Amino acid sequence: MRYSGIATQSDAGSRTSPSTPGQLQLARLLYEELRALGIADLAMDDCGIVTAVLPGSPDRPSIGFVAHLDTVDVGLSPSVRPRKIRYEGQDILLNETEGIYFDKVAHPEIERYAGDDIYFSDGTSVLGADDKAAMSVVMCALETVLEDDVPHGDLYVAFVPDEEIGLKGAKRLDLDRFAPDYAYTIDCCELGEVVYETFNAGTAFVEIEGVPAHPMSAKGVLLNPILVAQDFIGLFDRRETPEHTEGKEGYIWFNRIAGGQAGASLQASIRDHGLAGYEDKKRRLREAADEIGRRYPRATVSVRIEDVYANIANHADRSHPAVAAIYDAMAELGIEPRTVAMRGGTDGSALSAKGLVTPNYFTGAHLFHSRFEFLPVSSFVASYRLTLRLIEDAGGR
Ligand SMILES: [Zn+2]
To answer: For 17-29, what is each residue's pLDDT tens digit?
Structure first.
């Protein structure tokens, strides 16, 4: 609740890093708390990236934990006032002044937690269990490890900013400094969720130059870049889009267009779980530029593609020690795993692309990115127990 009380919405329009000062404030608090735990190998950089290393037995694998400092800005209040409510099936009043009730009809999954204590916001903001629950889990696990002399290998911790605006903190994370054998993000997701498959993701930037002319003498001269852009988009399958795909189907999503008399530009997101499908989509975008160039020899069409993040499973399948350890620990704890192929990316997708295998497991929260985000205490505790078990189990007990 202390972490939630610090306003850390990230801001996609900001040019600073971290994007908002609240994230620095939370980073400083975590830094001080880590120091108070007695962790000596501790650093915080200008972007608010906090890293800590707790040395352990060299016979055991070293593992890392990553959580993000920011909460998402979806137009709700940046100030979070969390509260804990015992849920017994009653209507849940989140905010008396504004008359905001938890919408039980739209979100019947709440019934699974009847009899449980549950954290909610006051209905004017997200709860921010995404991802402050993970911070609590990591800090409590470290505290337990130190107090109870739990055997462990080298433990690495990273708290990173600006996950919600493009995994920016994880992309900046220095892997010489944060250098475990493998790592985990603890982020989003209800009890039992495991993510080691995410999208491969890229962005295509298409630039088109036409030939402007005054319309009074335009015949045979004017080449309208807006119509060329239209034809470019027309080369793609209208069913290979986010609104027509699900599960492990990839897509190309044209999501930005700008243009005038002289030029036009397009932007598209490329997403696919499979590497082959991802590369194929990139190839088709480049071929489209060639095709349009042939069709309009007087136009200039270029495509630049940036890889944004990669599927964790490109580097690690179910049998990878980092992934297998999650399922083993869940079996020991009696937690039913729910494996999800995420139609998106995690900080672990950015880290895995940089060579550090980093699957994700649950905080226990539901309905993140909404005013109805909630975190059952039992799931929160399960996330903590799982974290501790991963630390204990690494290298065998
Ligand atoms: Zn998150």
So the answer is: 999 999 999 999 9
pLDDT of residue 382: 98
Q: Residue 162 C-alpha to ligand 1 middle, in angstroms?
A: 10
Whether residue 251 lies inside any domain: the answer is yes
Question: Of 277, 309, 341, which residue is a domain's last?
Answer: 309
**Ligand 1 mean position to 188 CA, how many Å?**
5
**Residue 32 tokens, joined:** 């001080």
Distance 120 CA to ligand 1 centre (A): 16
User: Which domain-ending residue is among 309, 331, 361?
Assistant: 309
Burial pattern 20-53, b for ≥16 Cβ within 10 A else e, equals bebbbebbeebbebbeebebeebebeebbbbbbb
Average pLDDT over residues 164-177: 94
Measured CA angle at 137 (ends 118, 170), to 5 deg: 115
Q: Give the neighbor-by-neighbor strand order of the sheet with 200-209.
A: 251-259, 263-272, 200-209, 300-309
Cβ-based neighbours of 94, under 8 Å, separated by 6 or more: 100, 101, 102, 120, 121, 122, 123, 371
CA of 68 to the centre of ligand 1 (A): 7
Per-residue pLDDT band for 395 (boundaries 50, 70, 90) equals low
CB distance 274 to 202 below 8 Å? no
- Catalytic site residue from 122, 154, 162, 163: 163
Domain match, 353 and 373 both: yes
Residue 70 is a catalytic residue = yes
**Residue 163 Cα to ligand 1 middle (Å):** 7
277 CA distance to ligand 1 centroid (A)?
Answer: 27
pLDDT beyond 70 at 396: no
Q: If you search the block for the tokens 């889009």, which residue do you land on?
A: 241
Q: At 10, which amino acid appears?
A: S
Q: For 4-20, what is each residue's pLDDT tens digit? A: 999 999 999 999 999 99
Q: Provide mean pLDDT across the span 94-104.
A: 95
Q: If you average pLDDT over every residue of the chain, what do you get?
A: 96
In the set 70, 73, 193, 392, the catalytic residue is 70
